[in-house]
Amino acid sequence: MRIRKNTVVIGKVGLLVALLLVGLTVLGCYGTKTSPEGGSGGVVADGTLFLAPSIKQAGGGLGCTPAAVDSKLVALSAADGTRFWEVPLEGSSSGGGFGCTPATTPAAIYGSPAVAGELVYVGGYNGKIYAINASSGAVRWVYPREGSLEPIIGGVIVALDRVYFGCSDGKVYALDAATGDEQWKVTLGDKIWATPAVSGETLYIGCFDKKLYSFNAVNGTKQWEYLAEGAIVSTPLIYNDTVYIGSFDRNFYALDAASGRLKWQFPAEKWFWTKAVAYNGTIYAGCFDGKVYALGAENGQGLAALDLESPIYSWPVLIDGRVIVANSDGRVYAIDTASNQATMLADIEEAVYAPLSAEGGVIYVYSQEQNLYALNADSGANLWNLTIK
Length: 389
Prior knowledge:
This protein is mainly β.
């Protein structure tokens, strides 16, 4: 089903495109390749959809004129897209490279927000973490209170009354969720773009140093590390005492959650970026080669390789025993986990890089063309859509 959009203007946004394929230091000037446009996926809680679009201002390019990329956290009705509130998240000043004049480090958001209790949390490329009241949009706290960290690419997660995130400075941080006070931080071997995962009192996170780490989530003590053959930027899936993770070395790994021992690995043709999902003993992992691999959770046996014909950047969602996944060309598929067959639900005809989200039988898809779609999970029908400019 092709989707025809109805235009309702809210604000201008781009999505994480350049970060998928290039580093953060190309050309040396903020506002050119070092400040790619970006936007996170949405997260739904109690009937409200939280989204962090980014707004690119004038400037940038080879002349090194600063390009300000500011973002905002927007709260929308999940039922019809009505806007409840928005909070601007401004960029911070930074020097350019190669003789560039000082530029603005953008507040662009690449990781999806997280919601816990009355607060919604989000981290920015400007090196700040925000805690905002989910009902009113009032800012509760900002970390750090003065200055900023290096760019935060991955999302934040909330567990054990703490906010966890990784940073481009190579550190993993744990903050008190209520106050934003730092609880602990640890330094890894390279920059971190990955979103962490927490299971019980253990935190798992990947790093550009090609390692997956396990830490005690309460005090930050390292428990184990596993060395892969390429950078790890995807988010771990913890399922049946096993950690499942893809890597830029074109392998998908299954590790014992307690010890880090390798159980199996599965080779693909290209990189793994997205988080996998699990259902009934099967792991579903999307890949840059355009395939979703269905793998036996215990032994890594390849059960199916579903060719969706363009790279899979977007995180999938699991609805009623079906894996819903979007390819980079904007086609949304439902994978029947009983038969491992894929059926196209909708074609929005716009690139999709942001994670999908879902609630109450509705799938929310945020496109590179600055549009947010609400689709019926059974039929793929377009329930509503907004153009965000």
